[in-house]
Hints:
By secondary structure, the chain is of the alpha/beta class. The protein folds into three domains: about 130 residues, 3-Layer(aba) Sandwich (Rossmann fold), CATH 3.40.50.300; about 60 residues, Helicase, Ruva Protein, domain 3, CATH 1.10.8.60; about 120 residues, Zinc Finger, Delta Prime, domain 3 (Up-down Bundle). Helices cover about 60% and strands about 10% of the residues. The protein is built from 17 helices and seven strands. The strands form two sheets. A five-stranded parallel sheet has the order 2-3-4-1-5. Helix 3 runs parallel beside helix 5, helix 7 packs across helix 9 and helix 11 crosses helix 13. The N and C termini lie far apart (about 60 Å). The mean pLDDT is about 85.
Amino acid sequence: MAVYFFYGDEDFNIELELEKMTAKLNPDFKSMNLKVLDNPNYADLITVLRTPPMMFGEMLTIINAESYFLTNKSVFEESELLDIENALANIADTHDIVFVVRLPRNENKKLDSRRKLYKILSKYNAKEFPTFKTYKTADIANWIKTRAKSKDITVSSETAEALIVQIGNNLREFDTELDKLKLIAYPNKNITEDMVKEICISNQDLFNFTELIMKGQKDRALLEFKKLLDIKHPLEIISAVQTMLRKWIILKTKSSTPPAELAKLTGQHEFVVKQTLQKLKNTKVSDLVKLKQNLFDAEYKIKSAEAIDIIQEVECAIIR
């Protein structure tokens, strides 16, 4: 067995890698042989590293280690780091240890390679999981096609490009949409471009909907909302609009920042950033923030079962 070090801001790819490793465990003894620890202190960490696996097959320990790297100084003393290094060098043959550091998405944070713990872990199976750059559409398309294959469906390059136009570079959203497309295509296994256009909310659809709200044309906005309901659950619409609003607020509050930097902050192509800034020219940040809060409140009420009528709850959030 081995020690692994996974880090990066594409948490979905990290999640998929951990799922692969977990799937290899004996299902009958999984509850005993799978441990997940969140930033354990020295005493707890060294205990886990030195604990031999049970007699019931292989063991997997996942250590979420964000606080080890995202604080201003090392959380371990030099002597403790030496103990950790020695313990890792003597991990039992049937024990996998995975250190995981999920970085904030689209904030361009990097791990400090000068830290001793980084140097220790990077000797093992270290792998970075970065977010795909929005302009690297070929890389994103290859990921989509590979993920589709794992679900026993096929996606052409044209269909993958249509998904990218609709979604951008959010791998978790791609995964969700592929599951829906698989159901629509059944019993066929080929996903077409028309299917994507039929069930996926496009950025333009969301923009039209939200722009009408911003302009005060709430009657037309409600009509657009009803159209979106034909292809999406209200919570999915709220989630998609919330994501868009977050990006818009960043663009408006940092409009003096160069477009290339804004593209990195929002995970969008530079051309899209310039277009969006132009469209938002007459929109107030306060209006965007108010709408985002209204939708957040509606989402909370729906998820906490406080909403009597889900659709009406969203409509009220729109017209307030």
